[in-house]
Amino acid sequence: MPAGPSSPGVRSVCSGNSSGTHVAGRAGEAGQDSRPARRREREQKWKKTERALAAGRRGGGGEGGDTGGGGTAGGGGDRPSPELPVVSCCQALNPSTFPQTFRLPGARSPAACLPATEEAEEEVVAENPCQNHHCKHGKVCELDENNSPMCVCQDPTSCPAPIGEFEKVCSNDNKTFDSSCHFFATKCTLEGTKKGHKLHLDYIGPCKYIPPCLDSELTEFPLRMRDWLKNVLVTLYERDENNNLLTEKQKLRVKKIHENEKRLEAGDHPVELLARDFEKNYNMYIFPVHWQFGQLDQHPIDGYLSHTELAPLRAPLIPMEHCTTRFFQTCDLDNDKYIALDEWAGCFGIKEQDIDKDLVI
């Protein structure tokens, strides 16, 4: 019997059909075009092979024929012939030799070891169209009838259960939600309604009493905020070795601040001291104010801060700084619900001639 096409000099005991291809054994006599007859021949040979293998495993041995008789050909027991060893099709069709052509054997059936058909190739799961499709907060990606990705409102019950109180959030209508996921999913269901348009995430943490902001307190707020922004940048610079916390352009700006810094140590300080530091070291506050604007102006980058863009800064601040909401409201001088760069910088005491969009990097 000629060696199978999968491995010269090795006789495979596999037969079967896959796209009309024989792995081993006779491929049919020339001129014989009767498919049923060939199929029956293959089935008979396979059954005969199975009996031979079973006999070999039992140690029947004997001379036998090609694959029949009492065991494997030309050998005794389960020892194959050294001249023409009998191997399973999964051994003959070594997947490491044919990684792209043949399947990895997943079953004992010889069909699992034969070349994969076109139908089998189609079984490979295609990349999910939703994988790189971005949906905003409160929405998830689903496929429509044309297998195209689309964003739909997330069911609030599908949100992960909160771990603790710190995951709770408070909306501007003074309602506590288990997490930001629950809030945005609920807001999505109200999309297109007046209530949904007005609903916003107010701050991080469960709802609590926030005292009103007095005029005197509002004056003090930007003093603390300015100092905090400068200290954040300097701290990032000091810790940024290979962490890419700042870009190279940002590092150059902060380097000058860091080298000339005579800033106050972190902590609570009288507002008079903060005011004197701002006057004395005014130039060191210009870039931090521009930097924070650039950090918030992201969706989209258009030179204006929306309520949503302000949320990452204001939501954690409100429970600690009760003047946060009123401060940002006063920054919106034209009451258009957006804060432009000149409005933002002016809120922090930056002079008009020092406002520069090129510093928003």
The proportion of strand residues reads 5-15%
Structural class: mainly alpha
Q: Quote the distance from N terminus to C terminus.
A: 76 Å
Could you list the spans in which at least 5 consecutive residues all have pLDDT below 50? 1-32, 56-121
Radius of gyration: 37 Å
CATH fold assignment of the largest domain: Recoverin, domain 1
Figure out the total of helices: 12
The arrangement of helices and strands along the chain is: EHEHHEEEEHHEHHHHEHHEH
* CATH homologous superfamily heading of the largest domain: EF-hand
Strand order within the widest beta sheet: 6-5-7
Gross CATH architecture of the largest domain: Orthogonal Bundle
Brief rundown of the structure:
With 361 residues, this protein is mainly alpha-helical.
